[in-house]
Amino acid sequence: MEFTEPKAYTRSLIPFLDRSHSVAKPGFSRWLVPPAALCVHLCIGQAYAFSVFNLPMTRLIGVSQSAPGDWKLTELGWIFSIAMLFLGVSAAIFGRWVEEGGPRKAMFTAGILWAGGFMVSAIGIHLHQLWIIYFGYGVLGGCALGIGYISPVSTLMKWFPDRPGMATGMAIMGFGGGALIASPLSVWLMGKFASSTDVGVFNTFIVLGCAYFVFMMVGSMIVRVPAPGWKPEGYVPPATATKLITKNDVYVYDAIKTPQFWLIWTVLFLNTTAGIGVLGQASAMSQEMFPGHITPVAAAGLVGLMSLFNMGGRFSWASLSDFIGRKNTYFVYMCLGFALYITVPYAGGSGNVVLFVFCFLIIVSMYGGGFSTVPAYLKDMFGTRYVGAIHGILLTAWSAAGVAGPVLVNYIREYNVTHGVPKAQAYNTTMYIMAGLLVIGFIANFCVKAVDKRFHMKTDEDKDLGAARAPAGAAQAVPGRA
Amino acid sequence: MTNTEVTKTEPLKLILAWGFVGIPLLGGVAQTLTNAMKLFY
Fold first, then answer.
1. What's the ipTM?
2. For A383-446, where are the alpha helices, taking DSSP H only?
3. Contact A357 B36 (CB under 8 A)
């Protein structure tokens, strides 16, 4: 099979990383691509487990307890917040570069930044300079999160045109699973390195940085893009586009001009806001709603179970979307979510712990499912050519929800408690508001129709025009896709 | 560039790749499940 790559995208310092060097040869199994994607997502998923370092990092000087000069929890909280901010920013800014440079270059870059972020942070710990950690984990690590998160998405959908939801679900499941590995591993490493004069965080960061570097490099070496025109054996693409699955591509900066993009943004934002609000407060909420029934230890167990459902939901809901359609899957999230949120206060009022746990587990599985289904939704709407870049911009909905969700839950609870509402019922209003958000999400999802033809890159001329709007050298950046 | 030869991916390569990511993930899941059981005690 023959293809050419424009000169502008062959001038890499390491030619091995170029898209042209990662095109799969005939006979390559597409089932090697999901593990490559998982190598990256399992590593960057560590971000959800960063809180295990918070308490030890408040004792870097005092070791056994905080001493004058030790960092405060509020100061340390900014590390994660900066990383999340840079996740959204870098995914939006570098999305097009990721799409055009290919997954190997993006995964390699993410690996360097992620491991580099740990190493720089280790220096910050050694010198006890918090700003170095803000820069290391927050800025470098945050950029690695953004680039790494979107790097395998469009590649997986090109390898699995028959099951795009399942394919992206596998990768994004890894992001949820990363914390399950990182959390016990970090605690174990800190225990091994701890001494009477050291809490062990410095050495743990060094070891984790090295391990993540190896994992992510392996991923970038394994990953391949399909040759132009490749399709799975026996797969016959539908001859005509269905109502909500386009056969056309939409240029990234045209996509954000469409109402469909902002409707899907709203759907993701609302689904995530509702889910984050519950995820972040599950421990406290369960104990306050069931005083004496759910102990702190049991609440920790609930949080663990929720993280499993968060991970499992990413794979199972996205896989289901291949059969029932993306729009219908989001209808399920919104309708079922609405029913579950309004059931939570009933479960609390009647003291039904099992019903309460059931509601939370399904809600959190749909929170994860929202993330993993959205890349395929975007592919259905805007085609595969710029889906990674469009997905990158859409992730700003995640950043926005990360602020809105916890604020909504905390503020309303606080307001209720100060106005005399018993703690066990303080979350009821929040649950009804979350259910209300999902009604708005339902309406937004309902309004999603096929993208207007004027946004399609129909002909070669249109495609060239689309690329010409981009900075010089971007034209025909995706080899073989005229 | 012209690619003409057909080289089938060896099953061992697939097993190694999936094991490389699957074993740590299963370990993490098992550990989390163990902790989650405290909910039912």
1. 0.87
2. 387-394, 396-418, 428-446
3. no
